[in-house]
């Protein structure tokens, strides 16, 4: 698939797919850090505002690492909720069991903020994302 690079925050590179889905790839998996989490959500917000629509996010979650208490608390925070209007849905793709456990945690704490779903295959994830109705930001 032909991808257009939109930018990079820490080890995460953001690509725009032809179907409008934003695909993130982490180049150097490392423990999730709060400052990078916030920077990534700010970047997502910026993209959504520029595109004038909430984003469909496709994330390869297979290389993800552990989260500390501060990062888990952030996912439940009011600040995190403030990013919800900018994200239509997030599809986490991972064949890895440990990453799937982390993904299930992310879904459990972030489910009230926006649509988050875990997939084993990218095709299924993209299909789900494209079924979500568009929303103007």
From TrEMBL:
It comes from the Bacteria. InterPro entries: DUF7793 (IPR056695). It holds the Pfam family DUF7793. This is DUF7793 domain-containing protein. It comes from Saprospira grandis DSM 2844. Residues 16-131 form the DUF7793 domain.
């Amino acid at each position: 698939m032909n991808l257009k690079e939109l930018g990079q925050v820490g080890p995460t590179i953001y690509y725009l797919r032809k179907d409008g889905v934003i695909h993130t790839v982490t180049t150097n998996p490392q423990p999730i850090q709060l400052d990078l989490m916030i920077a990534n959500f700010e970047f997502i917000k910026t993209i959504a505002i520029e595109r004038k629509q909430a984003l469909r996010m496709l994330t390869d979650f297979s290389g993800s690492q552990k989260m500390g208490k501060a990062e888990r608390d952030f996912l439940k925070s009011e600040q995190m909720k403030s990013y919800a209007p900018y994200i239509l849905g997030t599809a986490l793709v991972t064949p890895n069991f440990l990453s799937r456990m982390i993904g299930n945690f992310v879904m459990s704490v972030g489910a009230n903020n926006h649509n988050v779903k875990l997939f084993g295959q990218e095709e299924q994830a993209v299909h789900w994302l494209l079924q979500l109705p568009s929303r103007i930001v």
